């Protein structure tokens, strides 16, 4: 049976607010949840080409050069509220913003990284990707609970497929995940330019997409698998994203 509490409403966003607007809307949903105006919700969308820098990145001497490099490659540079290092995404990725009201949101904060990391890795495995939770050496925006994929023919070749981040406030939490599904080359290129400008070391071979490992895979297939996986967490309901714009 589901391990969540009650229902989880899925909202599919099909039109963009722009790179910054899309990022900010997750925080708007969190504020609504903490005020009791929004129940447990899952927002799914394909983002505009964006490089989301961490707060530490923005304080480095090479940040302006990194911003310029992003724009030259067609990506919008933004600084997110959460920690971590620069991560890149575009319309070949799926963003998942999971928001819930909670009277004591800090409780189980770390456990969410493990739980939802495993849930998302399971979603990828269900469509044929050899996926597991855990940081791989040299990955961009490194995290203990990143999800990586293995090349079944060359198990030593592992690539980061999902990055996760969390924001906890009084009365609610936001857990965001980005799954890189298609078209990894532009992401690798913009990350290489950004990390070079920032003077940060990483291994570009760790940047990839799920369809580098399983060529037929697309975002729609992964989205369906993700929603099914969340069905093991809570009772999933379909919502109308337009109702959030009222």
List keywords for this structure.
246 residues; alpha/beta; 7 helices; 11 strands
Would you spell out the secondary-structure blueprint of this structure?
Elements: E1 7-12, H1 19-34, E2 41-45, E3 50-53, H2 55-58, H3 63-72, E4 76-79, E5 87-89, E6 93-101, H4 109-126, E7 130-133, E8 147-151, E9 154-169, E10 172-180, H5 184-198, H6 210-213, H7 219-230, E11 235-239
Parallel strand pairs: 1-2, 1-11, 3-4
Antiparallel strand pairs: 2-6, 3-5, 6-10, 7-8, 8-9, 9-10
Give a written overview of the molecule.
The protein is of the alpha/beta class and 246 residues long. The chain contains seven helices and eleven strands. The protein has helices at residues 19-34, 55-58, 63-72, 109-126, 184-198, 210-213, 219-230; strands at 7-12, 41-45, 50-53, 76-79, 87-89, 93-101, 130-133, 147-151, 154-169, 172-180, 235-239. It has an eight-stranded mixed β-sheet with strand order 7-8-9-10-6-2-1-11, sandwiched between helices. It has a three-stranded mixed β-sheet with strand order 4-3-5. Helix 3 runs antiparallel to helix 5 (184-198) and helix 4 crosses helix 7 (219-230). The radius of gyration is 17 Å and the shape is globular. The model has no long low-confidence stretch (mean pLDDT 94).
């Amino acid at each position: 049976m589901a391990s969540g509490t009650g229902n989880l409403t899925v909202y599919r966003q099909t039109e963009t607010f722009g790179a910054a607007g899309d990022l900010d809307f997750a925080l708007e949903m969190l504020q609504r949840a903490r005020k009791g105006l929004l129940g447990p919700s899952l927002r799914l969308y394909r983002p505009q080409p964006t490089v989301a820098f961490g707060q530490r990145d923005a304080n480095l001497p090479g940040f302006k050069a990194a911003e310029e490099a992003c724009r030259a490659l067609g990506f919008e540079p933004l600084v997110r509220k959460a920690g971590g290092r620069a991560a890149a995404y575009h319309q070949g990725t799926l963003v998942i913003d999971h928001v819930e009201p909670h009277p004591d949101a800090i409780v189980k904060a770390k456990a969410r990284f493990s739980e939802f990391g495993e849930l998302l890795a399971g979603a990828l495995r269900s469509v044929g990707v050899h996926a597991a939770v855990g940081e791989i050496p040299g990955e961009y925006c490194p995290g203990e609970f990143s999800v990586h994929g293995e090349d079944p023919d060359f198990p030593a070749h592992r690539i980061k497929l999902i990055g996760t981040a969390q924001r906890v406030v009084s009365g609610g939490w936001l857990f965001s995940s980005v799954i890189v599904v298609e078209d990894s080359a532009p992401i690798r290129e913009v990350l290489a330019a950004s990390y070079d400008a920032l003077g940060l070391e990483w291994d570009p071979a760790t940047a990839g997409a799920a369809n580098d490992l399983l060529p037929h895979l697309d975002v729609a297939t992964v989205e369906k698998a993700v929603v099914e996986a969340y069905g093991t967490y809570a009772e999933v309901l379909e919502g109308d994203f337009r109702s959030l714009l009222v």
